[in-house]
Amino acid sequence: MKTTISQSETYLNQEVTLGVWLANKRSSGKIAFLQLRDGTGFIQGVVVKADVTEEIFSLAKSLTQESSLYVTGKIVEDTRSPFGYEMQVKHIEVIHESSDYPITPKEHGPEFLMDHRHLWLRSKKQHAIMRIRNQIIQATYQFFQQEGFVKIDPPILTSSAAEGTTELFHTQYFDEEAYLSQSGQLYMEAAAMALGRVFSFGPTFRAEKSKTRRHLIEFWMIEPEMAFVTHEESLAIQESYVQFIVKSVLTHCKLELSTLDRNIDMLKNILKPFPRITYDKAINMLKEKGFTDIKWGEDFGAPHETAIAESFEQPVFITHYPKDIKAFYMKPDPNREDVVLCADLIAPEGYGEIIGGSARIDDLALMEQRYQEHQLSTEAYGWYLDLRKYGSIPHAGFGLGLERTVAWITGVEHVRETIPFPRLLNRLYP
């Protein structure tokens, strides 16, 4: 019976065949221990000299790292293994013998590993991160579908920028200028006017020359937009969404979290409602924490966000930022026009902002005023203005960065490990 490692527990005490790669091996005289992987998981294969032919035992001891194999044997319980099972190997068939595999069990530097990202993905830690990323994606679709959202795909090539062109990648679109999208939000607003509640899930691009552990040039965003929804209602949906994906990972990725030595007690504490502080309160907190140079009206950097997060065990919303440091489409607070109805959700443990969202301006005259203030072309943005001309309504939305969220939930230090093939300031290979 041919099966996979993830399904092997259903064949307890039965003989099965696995198609695998050899991740590592060791031997102690009369026993060879093979660390096997097949993409669905990892399992140890035990080859006992007395139980196999001399040819099979000799083969087991001579196998090279990352050779591909068909391995046949009995699945038995192993309480010492995090997986809980191992295979008592009876037969080995080599499919392809690998030689001089570059990523050995010794330590390698990050640049070497990034140069070999196509192979580094095979390691147990990277496998666990990708599995958790997949679970977050799966949970995202489940959450928004059950909440009545419709999946909409905005364009990746655009003729204009959502928040200015300084951080956009320029390209030529036949005889027109075009850009790689930095956000699908404006298009999602149009979709919300047609379908009520919508979300997108796709790649976005920022030509930001940043080398921090929180930034990628190409990353994935989940961007919901909601018609007839207030800022407060949007915050409640954000809380529910984040709680849902964390719970999904805790439920379905116990082995992967264990592989990463993740402190799951921190994740179990991610329960709504999340604490909320205003930008004004955040400024005062930072001054009390020693950031005496921070002034009202300045945006927060990574050290500021980390310092604020240290005061909370859960994600924290920072609300009501100054109007002048936020995007043109954010709705002013009706009680205070120098701040907008917005919020950034700051993850605990120093992972920074994972969500940015706001109520959107729905007043036509105010939006026209914003166009003038930001020197936005009505030729490029006329369609967006139409959303305020024809049946304008209160609406709100937000965007969650997938890779930062994966980094936080997995506990890895750098976002470059949270996407299969990262694009960084000086990296376009492989």
Automatic annotation (TrEMBL):
UniProt catalytic activity: tRNA(Asn) + L-asparagine + ATP = L-asparaginyl-tRNA(Asn) + AMP + diphosphate + H(+)
Family annotation (Pfam families): tRNA-synt_2, tRNA_anti-codon
Keywords annotated in UniProt: Aminoacyl-tRNA synthetase, ATP-binding, Cytoplasm, Ligase, Nucleotide-binding, Protein biosynthesis
CDD domains assigned: AsnRS_cyto_like_N (cd04323), AsxRS_core (cd00776)
Main enzyme class: ligase
Signal peptide positions on this chain: none
Gene3D superfamilies: Bira Bifunctional Protein, Domain 2, Nucleic acid-binding proteins
Domain Aminoacyl-transfer RNA synthetases class-II family profile, chain residue ranges per copy: 130-430
Compartment annotation: Cytoplasm
Single biological process term from Gene Ontology: asparaginyl-tRNA aminoacylation
Superkingdom in the source lineage: Bacteria
EC number: 6.1.1.22
GO molecular function: asparagine-tRNA ligase activity; ATP binding; catalytic activity, acting on a protein; nucleic acid binding; transferase activity
GO CC annotations on file: cytoplasm
Family of this protein: Belongs to the class-II aminoacyl-tRNA synthetase family.
Subunit structure: Homodimer.
Protein name: Asparagine--tRNA ligase
Origin organism lineage: Bacteria, Bacillati, Bacillota, Bacilli, Bacillales
